[in-house]
Amino acid sequence: METVIVTQIKSNIGIKKGQKLTLAALGLRKTGQQRKHTLTPQVKGMINDVQHLVRVEKA
């Protein structure tokens, strides 16, 4: 499986509740925070839901 680094690049102030919960599920709470994830279909879906708030890089 491929590993990716997900970085939150925009604030979660004023976004939909579901997107806030998705960021929390990815382990992101603050702008600039990074988390490493294995790229599974579930993680791909979460990243796709908040793609305007995060940056994804291959690890």
UniProtKB/TrEMBL annotation:
GO terms for cellular component: cytosolic large ribosomal subunit. GO terms for molecular function: structural constituent of ribosome. Residues 5-54 form the Large ribosomal subunit protein uL30-like ferredoxin-like fold domain. One of its GO terms (biological process) is translation. Pfam families: Ribosomal_L30. HAMAP family: Ribosomal_uL30_B (MF_01371_B). This is Large ribosomal subunit protein uL30. It comes from Leptospira hartskeerlii. The lineage of its organism: Bacteria, Pseudomonadati, Spirochaetota, Spirochaetia, Leptospirales.
